[in-house]
């Protein structure tokens, strides 16, 4: 499995675009570093337009690729930054699976890894009428600068280890790992088993993780699966139930974990959607990426 590696490319500090769609927009900043934008003409677009202002040397993106990227948003009327972020730092890295149908598909289509892209996006594609960021008007559109950092492998490598007796067995299937339940009583304590050990850095308690996962009840009934959605998920560890967070912390990127969470470290005596109260939960996690939030 991979650990995220960045190839930093530099280009002229100022890129002044001459095409009609981008005329009057000036971008300052190196690839992978904080970006500044100045807008001389109000942005008026009905659909996403984009220009690759610095073409990378990596492979061309294709549908299904899990892309690590950084993005900065600016008001297309005033030029002000409209979404806070940490562009140029690990905190600002996000992931997206190409082909999921969001506006990002139009920005990323046939772009090479390590490219910097300038796009103009209708405000309606970014926020609803009741969720516009402060300072953004009803008719304001957005200027977007996006750096394509890398493609993250979604299939793990390495020898597979079996589950110990008394815990569910995990087998591969066409749609991700399949959990085979056992008839033994559920364990009362948190159980964490490394089924595949990765070679990346250990996950820290404050990290944001990108994972594939499946969750099931002790009976084996699946209640959630990122594999079924065909797209990994991003989580801040601080927002997860205690048993899952405790299980993920310290595991290496590139690992597959079996985590069995007792009710006290899960949802306790409260039902949660398809999860009954006092449920023991089974999770299988593939840790694809972890980025620091410090």
From TrEMBL:
Keywords tagged on the record: Isomerase, Rotamase, Signal
Reactions accelerated catalytically: [protein]-peptidylproline (omega=180) = [protein]-peptidylproline (omega=0)
GO MF annotation: an example: peptidyl-prolyl cis-trans isomerase activity
Keyword Signal carried by entry: yes
Entry annotated with the keyword Nucleus: no
A Pfam cross-reference name: FKBP_C
Enzyme nomenclature, EC number: 5.2.1.8
Domain PPIase FKBP-type: 206-291
InterPro entries, per database record: PPIase_dom_sf (IPR046357), PPIase_FKBP_dom (IPR001179)
Family: Belongs to the FKBP-type PPIase family.
Protein name in UniProt: Peptidyl-prolyl cis-trans isomerase
Taxonomic source organism: Tropheryma whipplei (strain Twist)
């Amino acid at each position: 499995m991979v650990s995220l590696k960045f190839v930093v490319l530099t280009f002229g500090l100022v890129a002044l675009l001459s095409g009609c769609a981008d005329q009057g927009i000036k971008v300052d900043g190196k690839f992978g570093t904080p970006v500044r934008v100045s807008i001389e003409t109000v942005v008026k677009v009905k659909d996403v337009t984009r220009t690759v202002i610095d073409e990378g040397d990596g492979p061309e993106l294709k549908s299904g690729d899990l892309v690590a990227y950084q993005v900065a948003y600016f008001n297309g009327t005033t030029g002000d930054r409209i979404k806070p972020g940490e562009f140029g730092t690990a905190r600002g890295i996000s992931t997206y699976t190409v082909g999921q149908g969001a506006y990002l598909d139009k920005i990323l289509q046939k772009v090479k890894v390590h490219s910097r892209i300038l796009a103009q996006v209708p405000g309606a594609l970014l926020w609803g009428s009741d969720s516009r960021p402060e300072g953004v008007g009803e008719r304001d559109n957005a200027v977007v600068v996006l750096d394509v950092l890398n493609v993250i492998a979604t299939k793990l490598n390495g020898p597979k280890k079996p589950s110990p007796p008394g815990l569910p067995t995990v087998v591969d299937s066409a749609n991700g790992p399949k959990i085979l339940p056992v008839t033994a009583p559920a364990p009362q304590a948190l159980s964490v088993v490394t089924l595949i050990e990765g070679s990346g850095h250990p996950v820290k308690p404050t990290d944001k993780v990108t994972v594939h996962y499946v969750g099931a009840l002790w009976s084996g009934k699946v209640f959630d699966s990122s594999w079924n959605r065909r797209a990994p998920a991003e989580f801040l560890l601080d927002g997860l139930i205690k048993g899952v967070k405790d299980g993920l912390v310290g595991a290496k990127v590139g690992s597959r974990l079996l985590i069995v969470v007792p009710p006290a470290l899960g949802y306790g005596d409260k039902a949660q959607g398809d999860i009954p109260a006092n449920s023991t939960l089974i999770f299988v996690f593939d840790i694809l990426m972890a980025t620091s939030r410090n």
